[in-house]
Design brief:
Elements lengths: L3 E11 L5 E8 L2 H10 L3 E10 L10
Antiparallel strand pairs: 1-2, 1-3
Length: 62
C-alpha cells in the first residue's frame, strides 16, 4: 500500500482587517474554489497539499 498526495484549495473567510475567519469549503479545483470565494467576499483561496501515507502521524509535543 502506498501513499498519495493531492492539491486542495481551501476557501476561508477574512474580515476587513485581513484576519482569517471560518473555513467555508475545501475544493479540488481552483475554479470552483475561486467561484465560492467571489460569492462569499471577503474570502480568499489558500492552496495546500493533502497527503496520505502508510506511516502513522505521531503527535508533536510532550
Amino acid at each position: 500500500m502506498s501513499g498519495y498526495q493531492t492539491k486542495v484549495y481551501i476557501v476561508q473567510k477574512y474580515d476587513r482587517d485581513g484576519s482569517p475567519g471560518e473555513i467555508i469549503a475545501v475544493k479540488l479545483t481552483f475554479a470552483s474554489a475561486h467561484q465560492l470565494a467571489k460569492s462569499n467576499a471577503p474570502a480568499k483561496v489558500v492552496f495546500a497539499i493533502a497527503d496520505k501515507s502508510v506511516f502513522r502521524n505521531v503527535p508533536v509535543g510532550p
